[in-house]
Design brief:
This protein is α+β, with helices and mostly antiparallel strands. The chain has 5 helices and 24 strands.
Length: 280
C-alpha cells in the first residue's frame, strides 16, 4: 500500500524579470534525472530503520560547544548557506524558517546518490504558496553544517523544478524542522550575515533599545507570531524565505482599510514549491 506524506512548505523568493530573457515556468525534472536518482531506491522498511537509527545518532552527535555559527549570503533578501554531504560535496541551501521540512532537489539527490524511498511505497505532497506538487522521501547521510555533523537526516525530494532563465539561487531548502528538533535557539544576524544554531542553553539577548521580543507558537512545523496594527490582530509566519518584509492577505487588508491602497507589482517572478508565477 502506498503511503502519502504531507508538509507545509512556504519558502519563496522573487527575481526581477527585466534582467531575464525567455520563459519562466514550473515542470517535472527530466526522466534521466529521475532514473539516476532511482538507482539509490530503498524500501520503506529500510528508510524506517535508518530513520530510527538516525534519531539516536543525531542526538549523540550534537556539538560539544554551545553553538555553531555559519556565514550566509543574501540572495533576493533571503539567507543562503552552504551545507556539506559525503566527501565534502557542497549543498547550497536557502535557510527558510517558513518551510516545515528540509527539501532537496531531485538533481541534488541524484548527484549525492542519496537514498530515496520507492515511489510505489511512499510519496509526499508538498504544499507551497502558489500550488502543490508530488515529491519523494529520502534521507541525507551525512548532513554537515560547519562543525555540526548529523549522521543522517530525513528530507523531502522535489521531482519538479522552477524554470527561470538566468536564475542563480539554491534549489534546496533548510527548513525550520532542524532547529526545532535539535536547537535551543536559532539566531539569524542580517547585518553580520551569520546564522547561529545553539544547543542546550537559553538565549540571552544583549539589552538594547533597538530590540524587542514576542512569544511564538509552532503550527504545521513553522513559527508564528501575533501582529497588531491598530485594533486588528492576526497570526503571521516568521518566514526568512520570503522576499517581503510583511505580507497580509485580502481579509486583513480589508480590516485595516488598505485594500485599495496597493499598487501593481511589475517585473517580478514568484518562485515557490508548487509553481512559478510572474507579475505580467
Amino acid at each position: 500500500m502506498k503511503r502519502h506524506l504531507a508538509a507545509l512548505l512556504v519558502g519563496l523568493f522573487s527575481l526581477g524579470l527585466h534582467a531575464c530573457n525567455g520563459l519562466s515556468g514550473h515542470a517535472p525534472v527530466s526522466r534521466s534525472v529521475i532514473r539516476q536518482m532511482e538507482r539509490q531506491n530503498i524500501s520503506r522498511d529500510q528508510f524506517d530503520q535508518r530513520l530510527n537509527q538516525a534519531r539516536k545518532d543525531n542526538l549523540r552527535s550534537l556539538p560539544k560547544g554551545r553553538s555553531i555559527t555559519l556565514p550566509f549570503l543574501l540572495r533576493s533578501n533571503t539567507p543562503c548557506i552552504t551545507a556539506q554531504a559525503t566527501g565534502g560535496q557542497e549543498i547550497p541551501m536557502m535557510l527558510d524558517t517558513g518551510a516545515g521540512r528540509m527539501v532537496i532537489s531531485a538533481r541534488t539527490a541524484a548527484k549525492l546518490k542519496m537514498p530515496v524511498v520507492n515511489s510505489s511505497e511512499v510519496q509526499s505532497t508538498m504544499l507551497g504558496v502558489v500550488g502543490k506538487e508530488q515529491g519523494r522521501v529520502g534521507i541525507l547521510s551525512p548532513l554537515k553544517l560547519g562543525t555540526w555533523t548529523l549522521p543522517a537526516y530525513p528530507c523531502f525530494v522535489r521531482t519538479y523544478e522552477n524554470i527561470v532563465p538566468g536564475m542563480d539561487f539554491p534549489e534546496n531548502i533548510l527548513g525550520f524542522d532542524l532547529a526545532e528538533n535539535y536547537c535551543s535557539y536559532l539566531t539569524i544576524d542580517y547585518p553580520r550575515r551569520t546564522a547561529t544554531f545553539a544547543f542546550k542553553q537559553t538565549f540571552r539577548p544583549t539589552p538594547s533599545k533597538n530590540s524587542s521580543s514576542t512569544p511564538f507558537s509552532i503550527k504545521n512545523g513553522v513559527p508564528y507570531i501575533e501582529i497588531q496594527a491598530g485594533k486588528v490582530r492576526w497570526k503571521s509566519i516568521i518566514d526568512t524565505g520570503s522576499f517581503n518584509g510583511v505580507e497580509i492577505n485580502e481579509d486583513i487588508a480589508r480590516k485595516l482599510s488598505v485594500q485599495d491602497e496597493g499598487r501593481p507589482v511589475e517585473g517580478m517572478i514568484l518562485i515557490a514549491v508548487g509553481g512559478t508565477v510572474t507579475s505580467d
